[in-house]
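Standup notes, protein team

Yesterday: finished cleaning the Rugosimonospora africana set.
Today: histidine kinase structure.
Blockers: none.

Input for histidine kinase:
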Amino acid sequence: MSRGQLRVYLGAAPGVGKTYKMLEEGHRRRERGTDVVVGYVECHGRRHTEAMLGDLEVVPRRTIAYRGSAFTEMDIDAVLARKAEVVLVDELPHTNVPGARNAKRWQDIQELLDAGMTVITTVNIQHLESINDVVQEITGVPQRETVPDEIVRRAEQIELVDMAPDALRRRMAHGNIYAPEKIDAALGNYFRAGNLTALRELALLWVADKVDEQLDRYRAEHHISATWETRERVVVALTGGPEGDTLIRRAARIADRTKGAGLVAVHVTPSDGLTGSGDPANLARQRTLVEDLGGTYHQVIGSDIPTALLDFARGVNATQLVLGASRRGRLAQIFSPGVGVTTTAGSGTIDVHLVSHEEVKRGRGRVAPANALSWGRRGTGFALAALGLPALTALLTQVRADVSLPSDILLYLAWVVVVALVGGLFPALCAAVGGFLLLNYYFVPPIHLWTIDEWENILALFVFLAVAVAVSATVDAAARRTREAASARAEALTLSTLAGSVLRGSRPLPAVLDQLREAFGLTGVSLLERRPDAPPGPQERHDPAVWRLTASVGDKPCLTPTDGEVDIPIDPDLTLALRGGPLAAADRRVVEAFAAQAAVALRQERLAEQAATASTLAEADKLRTALLSAVSHDLRTPLASAKAAITSLRSHDVVFDEHDRDELLATADESLDRLVRLVENLLDMSRLQAGVLGMSPQPMSAGEAVAKAVDQLGTPGRDVRIQVPDELAEINVDPALLERILANVLSNALRHSPPGRPPMVTASEHAGYVEVRVIDHGPGIPVADRERVFLPFQRLGDRDNDTGVGLGLALSRGLAEAMNGTLEPDTTPGGGLTMTLRLPGTRPLDPSPVPAQPTDANTHSGGEATRT
């Protein structure tokens, strides 16, 4: 019996319509003549879902007793006995009641699949095991019911049931998901717009990865190597030359023109070793540039560079390949077309861009020579050639009658190989030529003459010479490659250690210098920078007044480049001074890579410092400008009103009755009260900016704080509706500051609420935090302007000049953050603004595990249902 197929409807959150879609698919299949039954469906009281269930055949559930209560689960035996073609099973991650045959519902579904039935099921993205912890960080709600990703990935069909967050919240507000008494709590907790947006992105990315896997598998199964332009991906090839920066920026611009295009950089290392494969300092700098531009860097090994480039590009499904124009001269291009031409000819459907740059036709530069054998081994090889050949000749002349000429040639060839193994190419060449001459003089007729009588002997001698030279070159090349590979391996390990130390360190510059010191056994490493005001001169490298010490590790820092045994210039203004002995020439390339990385780390530190300073200055300047603007108008307005009232009272030209005098005094009193509030807000904001705001935290209930804040509002506050549960945890706050926050937010809500629809205050407890929401049904604030209302001296949407200097919300957010809380705006379903004040509660979270209990697969705070 063949295994059945699995179809999964994946949703970003409860209520998007997964169960509805599953039932809809069941009706379609039944109409086509397929035998369809419902193994388990949970409608959660939603009338549209119940209507879609309709007349589909439902297998009766099994009742299980647990802890004195009765629960119903899918009857797996009854479904297996029914032997339907298609079974609809809701809530894939559901945990079965203890006593059921399987612990999890996905295990029940595996049995149905093994029995040959096709199963259609549903799951939310938050219940996938791999992203369970991510969802908890986003929503603050632990998901205890999970399903292994592999179960879902093995499904033959996965369909994403998507819905925009605002649309889902409107569905919630209209009562299409939960009962009315649960709507406010759900909207303020799990179903916040930010949570839904994050969950939606997770679902889209997970399904996109699944689609990529299916596409890659299909291409592999059908042996498709051609590029399918499902998504633009730009690959830039780097050689390690100075032109790489130009190529990377050009490739980044090409990628930016196509939204969603990826940037990938690749460097092909020759398969015969890392030596001569590119300047490591350039590659290190270019890798940083690629990653700063949002791309990824890769290094591959290939004997043929064009083939390796195209294989890599096709492997990542690239659509465009960026190459630099050849740096070789015209003469070199005559004998070989070059990488660019060869790659273009074999690119197929991949677009190849040959980018011109300043290094065109300047040549590749000096290539580092291959690592030669030591002089000791070379000397030994020459000695073996000089002493061994005469000794071999003397021996063979004694047995000339018993040994033929071919045997003599083989013995000389064997000795040439021995010389090549010991001394390398040049001693072996000398041995080959010497052996050729000795064979001709002592063993080829006529003997003791340099002439040869027979053409066959001439051929044998020249074949001996050719084979000896070829064997010598091969043996020498193998020895060189062995040394190069060992050196390259050591360089690669050192550079990989360098990268790891930089990534792990909180301060990358000291980590780079310390790793350099350890790698080469140095006693000290110093990074020196030329002073900007230092005059150039012939003795500048010896003058401590020209240089300043930027960073140093080890003992006795160097104050000038000449203080160390070795100095590595990085650029005209930076140099690296090393103490601890001379540096081998072969190690200088790796040290240059360290130096380049040190320069990058220094620039990053400087940029971070400049950014922090600039941000602080910009904020201070912005605040100063706004304050002057506010003082010029908003502070002067209440002063003008109070002065006008007092001046009128002191005037002897007009006689006021008692009512007019009371009105003028009331105007002056109100204006001065407004002025006092403005000054207090300005002082509190300045204390916040300076970080000297005094607080006296103490436990306080949210209901008490809301009541006091409403009392501060006076008569307008009587219309505010309050729904704060008594069982909420207390919050550890400064009562006066909390009342200021709530009063400011409530005042703002009252000012913008339409007549007959006063604001409402609700509160709930969520993930260890107490959240107080002030909900109004006014005009609301566009999403793009929400952060602006928290800037000092902003009065977004105010139509009068009596609303203050715009410090209320800015001060409220600052006070909330000072008490380790947050103040965030959100859209009220149906129109309006909801301000959510989130403060840590004093009630500790219960670390004990929740006992096993049958729960809905979508159980959460504000979730679809909870059955206990």
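Follow-up from PR in the comments: Confidence is low (pLDDT under 50) at residues 363-372, 501-506, 796-805, 845-868.
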